[in-house]
Specification:
With 309 residues, the protein is α+β, with helices and mostly antiparallel strands. It has helices at 15-22, 26-34, 138-141, 163-170, 174-182, 286-304, and strands at residues 2-11, 41-46, 54-58, 68-77, 82-90, 97-110, 113-124, 150-159, 187-194, 202-207, 216-225, 230-238, 245-258, 261-272. The protein has two domains: 2-147, Alpha-D-Glucose-1,6-Bisphosphate, Chain A, domain 4 (2-Layer Sandwich); 158-304, Alpha-D-Glucose-1,6-Bisphosphate, Chain A, domain 4 (2-Layer Sandwich). Helix 5 crosses helix 6. It holds the Pfam family Bet_v_1.
């Protein structure tokens, strides 16, 4: 199984200034200095920050996730401000991942502002596919949160299912109905306030008491594009709006690869006020990624099950 996540952060800094950190070893050094609760140590195994450089990153004891990993810089593009590093030892490789790549892109907007785009791409074997929910861009954006106003995170899941079969779920109310049925430890109840699944439909999602996050949220479907297989829903009550977010939108896209395979792309876009900017680190794709995984598994199981007599 393959997947990816990305986060974009608009900042009031020139791209060149940001690249002086992201394009060099200063990024790892500053991460240790500014985020000691997340990164304990960053040792240079060899290299000077160029392609081929290997770092050994050690995380504080007791933190969720791996204790360490080694990463190798495979791309440092000083012209286009793109840097890529792959994990070569430890880390998520110990959890069944066959590859794990982190990409940083600094995108110029104008002379005084730019976008920090942080992406993770991974592959994981089928036996450990459930561990894909551990992947998050949270640690990549902790040190950016003071500037956060707008942001987005996305997750992509490759599936061996035709687009029409997936859209029959994602493009209708069947999506939330199955989410409640297949994820009873997360979604307690889904109620339709009004509508039949088209634009303007409003639903209320109640989450299981005791789990982190809001107790419930109301969503309005603002886009249901059956031709291009794109659906958007924005939170209009409760949810992350309780934590200082001014807007919170989820987008689902079913992208055709060939007749028998497609990609589920799940994106969260948000805006948050300055006073609560630190809460931007709470945004993850965990829920939408888990939904994509269980929906894909459910549909595959349905296809492989013998017809009832």
């Amino acid at each position: 199984m393959k997947g990816s996540l990305c986060h974009e952060l608009e900042v009031g800094l020139p791209a060149g200034e940001i690249w002086e950190v992201y394009g060099t070893l200063r990024l790892a050094r500053l991460a240790v200095e500014l985020l000691p609760n997340i990164l304990q140590k960053a040792d240079i195994v060899h290299g000077d920050g160029g392609v081929g450089t290997v770092l050994h990153l050690t995380f504080p004891p007791g933190n969720p996730g791996p204790q360490y990993y080694k990463e190798k810089f495979t791309k440092v593009d000083n012209d286009n401000y793109v840097k890529e590093a792959v994990v070569i030892e430890g880390g998520y490789l110990e959890l069944g991942f066959t590859s794990y790549l982190v990409r940083f892109e600094i995108v110029k907007k104008d002379g005084d502002s730019s976008v920090i785009r942080s992406s993770i791409e991974y592959e994981i074997d089928d036996e450990n596919a459930g561990n894909a929910s551990f992947v998050t861009t949270g640690p990549l954006i902790k040190d950016q949160k003071k500037e956060a106003m707008k942001g987005s995170v996305c997750h992509e899941l490759d599936t061996d299912l035709p687009v029409d079969e997936l859209w029959a779920v994602y493009g209708t109310l069947r999506l939330v109905q199955l989410a409640a049925e297949l994820l009873p430890n997360i979604v307690q109840k889904v109620s339709t306030v009004h509508g039949d699944g088209e634009v303007g439909t409003v639903i209320q999602v109640n989450f299981v008491p005791g789990i982190p996050g809001p107790p419930y949220q109301k969503e309005e479907f603002v886009k249901v594009d059956n031709e291009n297989r794109v659906k958007e829903a924005k939170v209009i009550e409760a949810g992350f709006l309780l934590f200082g977010f001014q807007s919170y939108l989820m987008r689902f896209e079913i992208v055709k690869k060939d007749n028998d395979s497609s990609v589920i792309r799940s994106t969260v876009e948000y805006e948050i006020d300055d006073k609560h900017a630190s809460n931007a680190s709470l945004v993850t794709t965990d829920l939408v990624a888990t939904i994509a995984q269980v929906i894909a598994k459910y549909l595959k199981d349905q296809k492989s099950s013998p017809p009832s007599s």
